[in-house]
TrEMBL record:
GO terms for cellular component: plasma membrane. It is found in: Cell membrane. It is a multi-pass membrane protein. It comes from Rosistilla carotiformis. NCBIfam families: PRK11431.1. This is Guanidinium exporter.
Length: 104
């Protein structure tokens, strides 16, 4: 269950990072409220995941899922650059996540 909680926490991190952009510097009430709820939910699931998963591993994978998901959605939703080097770096992060999972 801990790994499932960690994946959920990571996906929620992606959601709140995208939501953070929608708050426009915390000036829009509804997106700001949704973003805060998503942040709390992400931390909640992370806190349950690290009961069983080592802290360093759990935190690194959580941030990795968030980084890969947010960077990918930035490309897909916001037209951010999709250069070869950027895609390669996202691939390196995925490699790190897989490596940490295998080492856990």
């Amino acid at each position: 269950m801990a790994w499932l909680y960690l994946v959920i926490a990571g996906l929620l991190e992606v959601a709140w990072a995208i939501g953070l952009k929608q708050t426009e510097g915390w000036t829009r009430l509804v997106p700001s409220m949704i973003t805060v709820v998503l942040m709390i939910a992400s931390f909640y699931f992370l806190s349950h995941a690290i009961k069983e998963i080592p802290l360093g591993t759990g935190y690194a994978i959580w941030t990795g899922i968030g980084a890969v998901g947010t960077a990918s959605l930035g490309i897909l939703l916001f037209g951010e650059p999709a250069s070869a080097i950027r895609i390669a770096c996202i691939g390196l992060i995925i490699g790190g996540i897989v490596g940490l999972k295998l080492a856990a």
